Amino acid sequence: MNYIPTIGLEVHVQLNTNTKIFCGCKTSFGDPPNVHICPVCLGLPGALPVLNNEVLKKAVLAGLAIKAEIHKKSKFDRKNYFYPDLPKAYQISQFDEPYCTNGVITIEEEGRKKDICIIRIHMEEDAGKLMHSEDSNVQESYVDLNRAGTPLIEIVSAPEIDSSDEAVLYLTQLKSIMQYIEISDCNMEQGSLRVDANISVRPEGQEKLGTRAEIKNLNSFKAVKAAIDYEIERQIDLINSGEKVLQETRLWNAVSSRTVSMRSKEESHDYRYFPEPDLVPVVLTDDEISAILNDMPELAYQKKERFVKDYSIPEYDAGVLTAKKEYAEYYENLVKKGVPAKKASNWLMAEMLAFAREKDLEFKDLCSFENLSALLLEIESGTISGKIAKTVFAEMIETNKDPLQIIKEKGLVQITDENAIVLVVEEVLKENQESVQSFLDGKDKALGFLVGQVMKKTQGKANPPLVNKLLLERLKK
Q: What is the CATH code for 418-476?
């Protein structure tokens, strides 16, 4: 029997405000434990929360970026549960009146577009962080409350994702949007973006969805894909063996590459939600929403359309270059420096991306756009060849030297003197009579060999188009 998987994702995005959602404590990452805390984040008696206006603005911007409906009135609620890193024994969140509903994320695969509905986005505070002893003989855990009260938005998709590949495409697009509007760095390693995946399977032909299991706290796209694929197979195996899929919360164990049961899945009534008595409802005016909309930067899909139109590059190139805001900005800086649009895109996609992935660095940390544009303009002027430029580029990455300095120090200036190249061409023709005859017999590949010999004798410095021209002129004679 064939089974159809259905997936819905809940994504927590940490907002990059300077202070927490309900108090003035800093939100900086990596500081010593329990230094950014106050009576509000500790939930001490008499401490009153006050909504951070920057949190509201960034949250609304996120909703507008995914074309969602922003509600003029929303409210906060208490979500009650007991856990060591939750000092108040409740979390301030939004339940039945979130500030945002009915958005959409569009994914594209092999030319096919699909809209994934966003059911809701709501604001909430983060919990603290538990740290467990790495020594199995020491049964101790520690609590760091620096993160308690850090502002989050939770973005909840409809169960409209059909595979782990679609889930990764959805998350990639969502992450790109959040980074483009600059409300979060979405650093999954630091917990700025965390994913919970709800997964169920049903027999083909059955309309009713199967029983779902939730996989909590997935912190990489690789983990998301692996956990979804495993869970789909686990549920299918259970059904085929006559067992039931339980509605439960599970965790992904990356070491054993499997999901493990954590607890039975809670329903909303288990949290005993009720309106937060210490916070007034959130009320937005049309003017306030319009002002936030006016601050919306150009999004990836808009930038992609503009790149194709303004720079006459293929859609594929534009898609790669706008996948991250950093790529797009770097590309436009190259073009502004006078680098031809297509040459700039070719170098970024072929050379820069390869080095960035190898060294796990951003473009700006590999080499400045000023240095790269200077190198590419040397190719355009004919000073160096494309092959030599790759050698110079590799040294630029390692040493951070100016490309002109490297070219001068290593004597890499391209030979464009026709008389000097002619001497080498004639020498190569005399030494390779068999290849000459092969060319005359109609074997075009022989020309490539002869060009290679000239380049070898000139240590790659001869101008390739000129070498081709001079060789053909003499061969035809």
A: 1.10.10.410
